[in-house]
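User: I'm writing a short report section on ligand binding and want a predicted complex to refer to. Could you take this sequence and FE2/S2 (inorganic) cluster and write out the structure as tokens? A short remark afterwards would be nice.
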Amino acid sequence: MIDGRHDCLVGIDGGAGGRTGRRSTGGQADARPARGLQGSVVNETAELAIVGAGPAGMSAAVAAREHGIDTLVLDEQTAPGGQIYRNVETVTAGRPNTARVLGEDYVAGAAIVRAFRECGARYSPRTSVWEVSTVARRADEAAPLELGILQGGVARLVRAHCVIVAAGARERAAPVPGALLPGVMGVGGAQSLLKSSGLVPDAPAVIAGSGPLVYLVACQLARAGAPVRAVLLTMSPGRFRRAAGALPQALAMPGELRKGLGWRRALAGRGVKVMHASDLAIIGDERVEAVRFFHRGRERSMDASLVLLHEGVIPNAHLTLAAQLDHVRDERQHGFRPAVDEWGETSERGLLAAGDCAHVLGAQAAVDSGRLAALEAAYRLGRIDSRRRDALAKPHRASLERRRRFQEFLDFAFEPGAAVLRPSDPAVTVCRCEEVTIAEIESVIARGCPGPDQAKAFTRCGMGPCQGRMCATVVSGIFAGRRGAGTGADAGIGTRTGAGVDVDTVGHYRIRPPVKPITVGELAALEGAGPAREMVRAPGHPRAGRRLV
Amino acid sequence: MFRRLPDPAAIVTFDFEGATFDACEGDSVAAALLANGVLAFRTTPVSGTPRGPWCLIGECHECLVEIDGEPNRQACMIEVRADMRVRRQHGARMVAGWREE
Ligand SMILES: Cc1cc2nc3c(=O)[nH]c(=O)nc-3n(C[C@H](O)[C@H](O)[C@H](O)COP(=O)(O)OP(=O)(O)OC[C@H]3O[C@@H](n4cnc5c(N)ncnc54)[C@H](O)[C@@H]3O)c2cc1C
Ligand code: FES
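Assistant: Sure. The structure tokens for the complex follow:
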């Protein structure tokens, strides 16, 4: 474990053999940490470091341990499980009502968590990772990748030979009028209150949006007896025709399809209204009072104290964006994700991504992609040869392929409407932190601002505490709509590949570390570490230009 | 606004702006405030409008509060502890990634 007091390296037994990786790691003869680093600011090393203990990270850890890899798993939550299985140990051990409401798919997560707990990986909860970097590549061939972590108010560095980023996904922001009012939250957000604390709404609630999670959570809340007034579906009804064309793909996973139909039946059985809605607006002064929308061409309104929104999830790509890896914009899912190969390796050698942060495909696919990434790590570390790796990968590839086909259907069926992807109401605030409206973004576009990153300088959008997590895809959408050319279907936005388009001019804000909130004092523990000093000089930081002393 | 499912849990008490609130062990500060009917956690530095938690998984930073005198703490990511002192945050500004000390 990373210990709050020790400051020197943890030696690692069973260093890798001399075999080098597929793309040669260049004369690497021994994966053990370089002893010469003793006493430096690197606090811990591992052969494999994994960011995130959701289904992807936990499965990667279990698979890595099967090959004897020294594995360190870092997660900012208090317990393993990720978003889907948040708090599952506590709930299954002693909260029967919460378990009943969440259902058997959730409870099944306890087995995955148990396997993870028993696998022998070092697990570090309450630990946020604020940077993944390759600065050490030249200095330290055995452990060329470096993670900046924050634990109990102290910043530390971890070095590893391979890193798997399994940071999951987050809910896409829905830029509808009134979305900033207290009492409006994400559907997944409300569900996380149920998982962590057994909380359910007991005031009139409206659920609005698109995606499987809308149905799942509506069912869970209805089962708990919450006063769900209605489920408003915001995707354009026309989507269903395209989805119908993708029905053969849906049949790749008949069980999932049946589950979806079951949710619809369950809601009908409990008398929860499910209806299409357009032009959604949330009304209220200091808090939510009602929702207004159009249904079949007629304006309707409904009193509500809570409004839960959901427009699908997008990859949590801030760590990989800040590491300046190549990224692509996913045309169907309308989000940015790191470009990865069939094992999940990014444009940086030894740095892999798995689970929803690499491609939103849900929990089972996260398990499969986590295992594939671990197999590749085992190969790189010389634990298995390529034939064994490929053989072990087979069932996971087949399972992933089925899920990819099924996802095609989902992406059609639940594609968010234009009101979410390219909102045009000038009064709507897109950047929640700095309170920048669509009108302001459009005005800088009209004045010739070439892209989202430049818009920051003019408007401060994306420069607040969330670092653009909530507004980046929307601002990109507005630019795309205005410039006609679009942000480019699957346009590479990497900064290095020739095929890519520069991230500065197209697509996404440039993201800089640290990607988790940290104070200069917390960073002080890293005195002498190059990257930390660089960060304090980074533009945007309130003390930019000063040295860390 | 929210009620708790009737499962067993140990109670801890904490201070919110001078009032004593009950919470359950393991609650995040955000869950504990919501369970006590508090929806607005802060006012914004730009227009002073009230905001409450949105994502509850540490991404949106809408839940920033002052905990034991320290501003810009993410209520959804911090476990409530007995005798914690929590206040709404009024306006304190935080710049991308950097929390003031
Ligand atoms: C709020 C929410 C609720 C969801 N609920 C469900 C559900 O009930 N059912 C369902 O089928 N799908 C659900 N999903 C979809 C979900 O993305 C996948 O089903 C699944 O959880 C993906 O697994 P994963 O391992 O890729 O990522 P996750 O399960 O999201 O795990 C990622 C982990 O990484 C950690 N992490 C991320 N960044 C950092 C960092 N910088 N430092 C340290 N730790 C970090 C997080 O704390 C998290 O534990 C939900 C998604 C969200 C956003
Ligand atoms: S509610 Fe989004 S960060 Fe806390």
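A remark for your report: The longest helix of chain B spans residues 29-35. Chain B has one helix and eight strands.
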